């Protein structure tokens, strides 16, 4: 029998039984849509994690006070890092380009009748480069501001909007912990990083924070919250981590366990990508079960169809159709059901991903390869699960079939 003729007959049969065909495809549609949506969400999660790590700066090491056990226990983090440590790293470690120590605290911020409680970062001029921030207007903290402990402040984009609306805040004065500060700049929007809004932040000179806001709480110098270190390039990141660790161990006279933690941005990103990759595979596997269930549904409905179409099968065999013709006919029907269901499921899945990207910060996306694989798998499932009913139809005795009719 001609292939085109078989396809035409199969299509005519399926269109004539719209409800049965639609219910048969439903499992495939849901399965395909689930696979594509889950893979898209997983890939979107990976992309979001990568963007958030990159927003912290490129080729960056983070030096945090306290060892990992202390951080896991979430107790009081020891005051083990001081400004002199950052200065020593800048002067003695050859594989790094810039060092940005910082002090973090939360304080009330007031302008006119507007009040908010926000993150205050005591920073140095190097912070702008190391952490990949850019200025929208005005300037950032200078060396002179540090030396003189000037009462100047740079506002994050969201904080500036919250306090001043559409007005230009440069030259205005705000109060932080009831101390007056002059606004000298506003940063470009940076976005959130791991739940922390980097735009709802006020940056003031590190020395001003130490002297006027939090006070000196360490007997060894100006206590800092952590140190960001920018390596010269990606290849020197490992060497920078090794050299910084050895230098701080010498400075802190450590023999056994470190009282600080050095976190490599790339290693952390790799771990995050591994976790999100495994999550994507798990979600795809769970959604793939829907495809399997859809294939079983195709087989069940096709078996029912064989019973309902006994007279048709008997008549076709009586006028010369071979077992191969009948087998091919039912296989074509199963493949069409699965392929059309796969395409409809793909459109539903892509639509769901677009909706998720539109309504949430998660920029979910899926590659064309995943779509092609999903449609191919759904077609293959139709072929696989269509074999049993097709063989059953092909083996029907025409005389018995005509009598049963």
Mind explaining what this structure looks like?
Residues 21-246 form the MacB-like periplasmic core domain. It is found in: Cell membrane. Keywords: Cell membrane, Membrane, Transmembrane, Transmembrane helix. Belongs to the ABC-4 integral membrane protein family. It comes from Crinalium epipsammum PCC 9333. By secondary structure, the chain is of the alpha+beta class. The chain has two domains: 3-52 and 271-404, no CATH class; 79-258, no CATH class. 58% of the residues lie in helices and 18% in strands. The chain contains 14 helices and twelve strands. It has helices at 3-16, 18-55, 68-73, 83-92, 127-130, 143-148, 157-164, 206-213, 237-251, 265-308, 310-318, 323-359, 368-394, 398-404; strands at 60-65, 96-111, 114-123, 135-138, 152-155, 173-176, 179-187, 192-193, 196-197, 201-205, 226-231, 260-264. Strands 2-3-10-5-7-6 form a six-stranded mixed barrel. The radius of gyration is 33 Å and the shape is elongated. 38% of the residues are buried. The model has no long low-confidence stretch (mean pLDDT 80).
């Amino acid at each position: 029998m001609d292939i085109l003729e078989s396809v035409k007959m199969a299509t005519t049969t399926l269109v004539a039984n719209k409800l049965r065909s639609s219910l048969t495809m439903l499992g495939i549609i849901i399965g395909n849509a689930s696979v594509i949506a889950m893979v898209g969400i997983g890939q979107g999660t990976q992309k979001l994690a990568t963007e958030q790590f990159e927003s912290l700066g490129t080729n960056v090491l983070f030096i945090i006070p306290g060892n990992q056990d202390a951080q896991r226990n979430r107790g009081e983090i020891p005051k083990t890092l001081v400004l002199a440590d950052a200065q020593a790293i800048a002067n003695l470690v050859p594989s790094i380009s810039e060092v940005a120590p910082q002090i973090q605290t939360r304080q009330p911020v007031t302008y006119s009748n507007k009040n908010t409680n926000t993150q205050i970062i005591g920073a140095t001029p190097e912070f702008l480069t190391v952490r990949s921030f850019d200025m929208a207007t005005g300037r950032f903290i200078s060396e002179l501001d540090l030396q003189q402990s000037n009462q100047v402040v740079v506002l994050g984009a969201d904080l500036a909007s919250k306090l001043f609306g559409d007005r230009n805040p440069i030259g205005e004065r705000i109060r932080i912990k009831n101390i007056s500060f002059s606004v000298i700049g506003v940063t470009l929007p940076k976005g959130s990083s791991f739940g922390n809004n980097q735009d709802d932040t006020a940056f003031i000179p590190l020395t001003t924070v130490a002297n006027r806001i939090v006070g000196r709480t360490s007997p060894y110098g100006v206590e800092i919250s952590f140190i960001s270190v920018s390596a010269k390039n990606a290849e020197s990141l490992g060497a920078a981590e090794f050299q910084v660790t050895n230098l701080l161990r010498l400075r802190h006279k450590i023999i056994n366990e470190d009282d600080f933690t050095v976190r490599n941005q790339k290693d952390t990103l790799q771990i995050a990508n591994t976790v999100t990759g495994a999550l994507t595979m798990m979600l795809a596997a769970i959604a793939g079960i829907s495809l399997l269930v859809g294939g079983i549904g195709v087989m069940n409905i096709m078996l029912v169809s064989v019973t309902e179409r006994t007279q048709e099968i008997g008549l076709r065999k009586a006028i010369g159709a071979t077992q191969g013709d009948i087998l091919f006919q039912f296989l074509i029907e199963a493949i069409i059901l699965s392929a059309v269901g796969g395409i409809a499921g793909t459109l539903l899945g892509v639509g769901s991903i677009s909706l998720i990207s539109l309504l949430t910060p998660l920029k979910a996306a899926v590659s064309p390869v995943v779509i092609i694989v999903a449609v191919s798998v759904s077609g293959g499932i139709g072929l696989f699960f269509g074999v049993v009913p097709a063989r059953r139809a092909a083996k029907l005795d025409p005389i018995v079939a005509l009598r049963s009719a």
